[in-house]
Design brief:
Blueprint lengths: L2 H10 L4 H4 L31 H23 L9 H8 L6 H18 L11 H11 L2 H14 L4 E8 L2 E8 L10 E7 L2 H8 L3 H12 L2 H9 L2
Antiparallel strand pairs: 1-2, 1-3
This protein binds manganese (II) ion.
């Protein structure tokens, strides 16, 4: 078992544990070392904010495709023996490995994305996280406004992130598969702003989608758990 993968599993919660378990003993290289984790809830669980059809395509076609491509690209290479986070770190900014980076990055980004919307959690942050949002953004409403501005400001496909940087909360926008992990920052929350994430439900209204996800879907217990694990 690869230690980096074990750390990653601990950091992302029990719901995804089964899907990230190693598929080989370490004796021989596996043909498909990276397993697409199960969606931690039903495809209809995010309705009405995100439709069942969007989740089915987003999880079952797009996310699954990143894993399939990644496994094809790493077969027979040293990357096949690494944890997913190490693959992202080691391929970041290296043009000769852009295909591996894009697929590993998107595989990882969507694990962050699905997990943080697990139904049943609080719709507003509490505890240390709430105090840090007050301190670093001036309160929840100002945080949501700043996050929305970050998300709508990403040109083309990409992501908006809440990260922890030197003990402070900060926002970050990235394009395509890029993510905070590739830049040495700790990820607390990530919202997908690729058109496939919202176009079926919101058409061109990216901002309306991001606002709805922030207000209605984010499980702040998951975000607080990531903060506590840093
Ligand atoms: Mn996506």
């Amino acid at each position: 078992m690869h230690l980096d993968r074990r750390r990653f599993v601990q950091g992302t919660g029990a719901a995804l544990l089964a899907g990230l378990a190693p598929t080989f003993t370490g004796v021989a290289r596996a043909a498909a070392p990276f397993a697409h984790p199960p969606l931690p809830y039903a495809e209809a669980a995010l309705v009405p904010t995100i439709s069942e059809r969007t989740v089915r395509l987003h999880y079952g076609v797009h996310h699954a495709g990143y894993f399939r491509n990644l496994n094809r690209l790493v077969e027979g290479t040293d990357f096949a023996d690494m944890g997913l986070e190490d693959v992202v770190r080691k391929t970041a900014g290296r043009a000769e490995h852009s295909g591996v980076f894009n697929n590993a990055g998107q595989a990882w980004n969507h694990i962050v994305y699905w997990e943080q919307m697990t139904p049943g959690g609080p719709s507003a942050p509490g505890g240390d996280l709430a105090r840090m949002i007050d301190r670093d953004f001036g309160g929840l409403a100002d945080f949501r406004a700043a996050f929305l501005k970050q998300a709508t400001g990403v040109f083309g496909s990409g992501w908006a992130w809440l990260v922890l940087e030197e003990g402070k909360l900060a926002l970050m926008g990235t394009q395509n598969a890029d993510n905070p992990l590739a830049h040495g920052k700790a990820t607390l929350l990530g919202i997908d702003v690729w058109e496939h994430a919202y176009y079926l439900d919101y058409e061109s209204r990216r901002g309306a989608h991001v606002t709805a996800v922030l207000e209605k879907l984010v499980n702040w217990d998951v975000v607080a758990g990531r903060l506590a694990a840093k």
